[in-house]
Specification:
heterodimer; A: Rna Polymerase Sigma Factor, Chain: A; Arc Repressor Mutant, subunit A; B: mainly alpha; 61% helix
Chain lengths: 191, 134
């Protein structure tokens, strides 16, 4: 599958159209192209929530399994109304939370899972970026990472987190201010 | 948008770079994982049934055949009005003795035998009413 070095030039929309309507061989190839294109993103996001590689790989499989089930014959087909990453983010997040709960490594929270339920960062080394981010709440850290690492627009973040754009702006504003005022930022060793 | 504009101003570029660096993809997806997902996709799509597609030309040929059959059947079976007025030679709307005379005029004496004409006359001037079975 992902062993061919050539990058598929077709857009995500085109690949998804083939997965929805193409014949079995074409659909499988199109799905593999989607996987190849987004697997690193999925792993990267998964590691924000689970912190260990084995569980992140499980999240990867769960995420692409979920995506696969969207396509016929088991599903009705997928209509991509935003970026693929916007679609994948909540899937990865929910898969990670579910797997962590299953593994009993995740503290049970009442009334569903909120960003604040996410596991705290591991103990940061002095001058580490995680030390700086550790001062943020999970909700604020999440929008910072989506905005500056994943390069998502405000609208895409709102779509991925299923929250209003105004909330994204507010969280981002507070997070940026907090980062600027962080006492750790002066100790940060930039690569 | 203030925040959009503030993106690079409010968060120092080195900090953004540090964030990106810390979240760089880790080369941890093995060929085995790739293979498993590939096989999962093949299994999923292999049970997909392709809709039976009839070529457009086949549909046109089928429609033409139906039309021809309907046309031929209609040609071969006269309508009820035609059956009733089959012997209305003078096209008066009634079948009566005038039709016999019209037939006699139209046909020369040598073309039909007298017996045939008599049989015809007997049939069309029958005292039986249409639909009378006795």
């Amino acid at each position: 599958m992902a062993n061919s070095g050539k990058r598929d030039q077709r857009s995500d929309q085109e690949l998804i159209r083939i997965c929805n309507h193409g014949n079995a061989a074409d659909a499988a190839r199109a799905f593999e192209a989607i996987y190849k294109r987004h697997k690193d993103y999925v792993i990267r996001v998964a590691l924000r929530f689970v912190r260990d590689h084995d569980t992140a790989l499980d999240v990867l499989q769960e995420t692409f399994g979920y995506l696969l089930r969207k396509f016929p014959p088991s599903g009705d087909g997928l209509t991509l109304t935003a970026q693929m990453t916007t679609f994948l983010y909540p899937v990865v997040r929910n898969s990670a939370i579910t797997l962590m709960r299953k593994a009993d490594r995740f503290p049970e929270a009442e009334g569903g899972c909120k960003p604040d339920d996410l596991p705290e960062n591991t103990a940061p080394e002095s001058g580490d970026i995680t030390e700086v981010l550790g001062g943020l709440s999970d909700a604020h850290r999440e929008v910072i990472l989506l905005r500056f690492v994943d390069d998502m627009s405000l609208q895409e973040i709102a779509g991925a987190l299923a929250i209003p754009v105004g909330t994204v702006k507010s969280r981002l504003h507070l997070a940026i201010r907090q980062l600027r005022e962080s006492p750790h930022i002066g100790n940060l060793h930039f690569p | 948008m203030e925040l959009e504009k503030a993106r690079s101003e409010d968060l120092p570029q080195p900090l953004i770079e540090a964030l990106k660096s810390a979240n760089r993809p880790v080369p941890m997806i093995t060929a085995r994982v790739d293979r498993e997902i590939s096989e999962m996709a093949r299994r999923h799509f292999s049970v997909r049934r392709q809709p039976a597609r009839v070529p457009r030309r086949a549909w046109a040929a089928m429609a033409a055949t139906v039309l021809i059959v309907v046309f031929v059947v209609q040609l071969q079976s006269p309508g009820p009005d035609q059956a009733v007025l089959y012997a209305d030679i003078d096209r008066s709307g009634r079948i009566d003795i005038a039709d016999v005379l019209a037939l006699a005029r139209a046909q020369g004496p040598g073309e039909r035998s007298q017996a045939e004409l008599d049989a015809f006359a007997l049939r069309i001037v029958s005292l039986k009413r249409p639909g009378d079975s006795s």
